[in-house]
Design a protein that fits this description.
5-stranded antiparallel sheet; alpha+beta; 10 helices; single chain; globular; Beta-Lactamase; 2 domains
Length: 247
């Protein structure tokens, strides 16, 4: 793991955005990217329950909210499709989960574990997203090595998960209905980003992963939120204009 100061600086960077006007998906994308960098994860993402009154293992629908890369998005989407994985489990048990090694991964998740190993991922750590007794999602970290997180690293992962919950819920005690509303609003921002990623992939003749990187890089260089930039890309596309001509 990087130095504790790096972890503190990364968390400070994300939490600073919460006190200002911000969009949830931009903050969470920054958060999962920073979390992955601090803890050495190959990919990091957040899945949430579309309806906070349900449980993932009981038929609740999971949806991708933020990912550190296109590859991370694919890993999270696999969980949605097969209905098993670290996020499903942490929502069900309401506690952190770590699985390391090829055989333990395959035994824990027969379908998804094989996908992880095939992609060269040998370790997974997941933290539940919680709000006043309700678990509504999970922060998932995927590693290229089978080394388990240390106790200190688990504390850092928990801190990132708590900040993610704060970012989504803002403040106050919310009912399950209100939590669902906040999650849905955040998911709407994610949908816009996915649409813009598709537009850029066509305009720039690049893979979706590269299109996502272009969005993140431009957002950082211009100071425009990720969702705000995505809306501009879509608006320009509707006018027949190329995104790079409207900076």
């Amino acid at each position: 793991m990087k130095t504790p100061k790096t972890a503190v600086a990364a968390l400070a960077d994300v939490t600073a955005a919460i006190v200002d006007e911000y969009d949830v998906v931009s903050c969470l994308t920054r958060l999962v990217t920073s979390c992955g960098e601090v803890l050495g994860a190959s990919a990091t993402g957040i899945l949430v329950l579309a309806d906070a009154s349900t449980q993932a293992g009981g038929g609740g629908r999971l949806e991708l909210l933020a990912a550190s890369s296109h590859a991370a998005s694919e890993l999270e989407l696999y969980q949605e499709q097969v209905g098993e994985g670290p996020c499903v489990d942490v929502i069900s048990i309401g506690a952190a989960l770590g699985v390391a090694g090829e055989q333990p991964l395959r035994e824990r998740w027969p379908v998804l574990g094989e996908v992880f190993v095939t992609k060269g991922l040998l370790g997974v750590h997941a933290e539940p997203l919680r709000w006043h007794g309700s678990t509504f999602g999970g922060l998932n970290l995927f590693f290229g090595s089978s080394a388990a997180l240390s106790a200190e690293e688990q504390v850092v992962a928990r801190a990132f998960a708590d900040v993610a919950s704060l970012t989504i819920m803002h403040a106050g005690v919310l009912s399950a209905t209100a939590i669902t509303r906040e999650v849905q609003e955040a998911l709407n921002g994610r949908i816009v980003i996915e649409q813009a990623k598709g537009v850029l992939a066509v305009q720039e003749s690049v893979e979706p992963g590269r299109a996502f990187d272009l969005l993140v890089t431009r957002s950082a260089s211009t100071g425009i939120s990720l969702a705000g930039l995505a809306e501009r890309v879509l608006a320009n596309a509707q006018r027949g204009a190329h995104w790079t001509t409207h900076r």
